[in-house]
What does this fold into?
Amino acid sequence: MLEIKNLHARIVDDGTEIIRGLNLTVKAGEVAAIMGPNGSGKSTLSYILAGREDYEVTEGDILYNGQSVLEMDPAERATAGIFLAFQYPMEIPGVATMEFLKVAMNEQRKARGEEPLKIPEFLKRVKEAAASLNMDMAMLKRPLNVGFSGGEKKRAEILQMKLLEPRLCVLDETDSGLDIDALKIVSDGVNALRSPERAIVVITHYQRLLEHIVPDSVHVLYKGQVIKSGDKSLALDLEANGYAGVIGEAA
Amino acid sequence: MNMHSIPQRTQAETALIDAFGERLSLLPGDGAVTLKRDDAIEAIKHGLPTRRLESWHYTDLRRLLTSVPAFDSTAATKALPPIVEGSAILAVLNGVSGAKFPAIEGVTVQRLSEKLTDGSIAPGLDPYGSDDAIGALNTAFVADGYFVDIADGAQLEKPIELQNLQAGGQVHVRFPVRVGAGAKAAIVERQAGEGAALGSSVSQVVLGEGAEVTWLIVQEQPETATHLAQFKAHLGKNSKLTVFFMNAGGKLVRQEIVVRTTGEGADFKLRGINLLAGDTHTDVTMVLDHAVPHTTSTEVIRNVVTGKARGVFQGRINVHQYAQKTNAKMACNTLLLSDDGEFSTKPELEIFADDVICGHGATVTEIDHNHLFYLMARGIDEKSARGLLVKAFVAEVIEELDDEAIVEALETRLDDWFVAHG
It folds into this structure.
């Protein structure tokens, strides 16, 4: 589903190269974990997948279902089924959360040639999804993410993911800022989305999240490259021994 | 050397003075009113204000007013449906009030032409200062409008909508409104039309003790019109006034808001949005006098600027020496959407009391590209995402008004503007 080939990318503003020849393949139905120390390029990778303009791809390609996404803007990628759950979801004053959800769902439906959702159906879906994440509907009456706690913002991201039903989900440090109960709820939400047609990329610092969202593959990112790939035991190994050993092997 | 030499008159100045000579005999008014008119035209004979006059620095009326259309009494126009359903409409069509108007419980309405004819309105025609060009222009030419008296204790369930609808040519109207003690009312001042017009409109409001008024100014003139407007209010003891303005049209617009707290415990709120597009000039100038102790005010202005539009907000707060415990806060935020648009903000605080809280802030920003990315990452295309963000920027001010019917009505006006200029 996702094929990243020899990807090189830099920050547009100052030309700093962050991704330096990254290769990664994630198949439909697979949950891939990307781990790595601070500054290894994990978040940058998530932004590049979503199409953020602050980064420029200088070499290589990103194929999604066999098609390059490099020429697609973020909205086109999203309507094609790519979803990024942000590490730091933006607070947007003045945009009501419900209005935003409705516009987003209907824009995606429009792009797929589907009719807009009728209001009762829309409300039903939001209520169900919110209930499954233990979210209060009153929260959704507020402006988007404004005044939400860190944990509430992460839940709101997963709520959007459930409602938009993407094919490729990229979760950027979704565990940060979550207490243990919230982590369980969010993980259950992600696990409920596991399906043979969907791929999930989980970017995380810690093994903790992977106890709840058990990955099929684990990839270690360092200095903008995948330096080691393995199964879930690799994550346990990293937890026990740190990144130093793996980095040493690669060097 | 003659320090008071008057520069050669502009075409517009000459046209105004000539028009006065021709119109005077047609204008309603007794001797007292005619004296006021004569005084007013004298002020115009001294010249329209230029950038050298501080209060007109960003709006050089003498330079910007390039032509003055003739009066056209044959032009016709029709009243508009009110922005809030069920409102009582008092319409001035092409400068003329209607002989018939709806009966509103607790409210006495009189055509202003009658009050000019019998001279009872003459004392209200005084300009408020030497730089009061709008007051002078209006006093010289005002022919009609409505006098509205809301009885003590009256609680109006539906808004009164004052419509000033021009049909080209010149239109000069006035709306004096008295709000009795303990009365509660919402008033919509609708400024619109369809011609290349020059218009002046003056609203004068006096709030009695404990009165509560929400006053909406909805200005949607065509891009051919020059619209010079003034809103003046006196706030009695424990009265509350919220003025909300929306400028969404006009070629050359100046909206002055002149407010004075005259009773302790008075509260004034100014909320406004300027939606500026095309090759236009819009100036909102506020002068607020905290003249007695224990009065409060907040002012929040949001501006959206596209095209080659130019905007101005001047906000002056005077805290008089005896006005201790004044609490005043002012903010002006601008979203610039084009390279050629501009907005000038001039906050001024003049404080003669020593125990007050006063603050002001101004920002000018572009659309936050992080916000834009977030919305697009959810599949919302760039144009829609920008639209959502711009609307959010101004809608915040509208949503503060706690009357649902009014909020909805204003959001509809907002949507209309975005459809036309998005």
About this structure: The mean pLDDT of chain A is 92. The interface with chain B takes residues 50-53, 73-75, 77-79, 83-84, 86, 89-90, 92-95, 100, 103-104, 107-108, 111, 143, 160, 164 of chain A (CB under 8 Å). The first strand of chain A starts at residue 2 and ends at 11.
